[in-house]
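re: ur question from yesterday

yeah so i grabbed the chain u mentioned. its 143 aa long if i counted rite. heres the sequnce exactly as i have it in my notes:
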Amino acid sequence: MNTLAERIVLDGMLAGDAYSQWLGIRIDHISEGQINAYFIPSEEMTNGFNIVHGGVLFSFADSIMAFCANTLGKLAVTKNSHISFLHSTDAEKMVKASAQVISIDQPYIKVDCQLIQDQSVFAEIEGVFKQTKKDWINVLQDS
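ran it thru and got these structure tokens back, copy pasting raw so excuse formatting
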């Protein structure tokens, strides 16, 4: 049986998220306050420098951090995020993400995420998410 965190991410979020599906996001691990995932950027996701477009990488990280924030049980949305690129990345090579909740100051949740390619961290992202009053258990039961 799936945990509530798994149901929230897989059934409540990813199943209806066309953009994350288009990116090809795959989830490796889900627990309360933590997500590990990956995707393989295609050639169509590169920019004029023939590296993966920063907007694509930011979108991947934003999705993973949102999934992470929502594992706490309340519907949460992005308030703000900041990304630092340490070096560029190549298309058609796996990009991994590891996100975890760092702090909770109701109704805000701070999530940190690292993006990794070839065992090297190439981007660090910090996001703040705002919890709504909606409980995921009710959202899942209504669907």
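noticed a couple things. The longest strand covers residues 120-135. also Strands lie at 26-31, 34-39, 74-85, 95-105, 108-117, 120-135.
anyway ttyl
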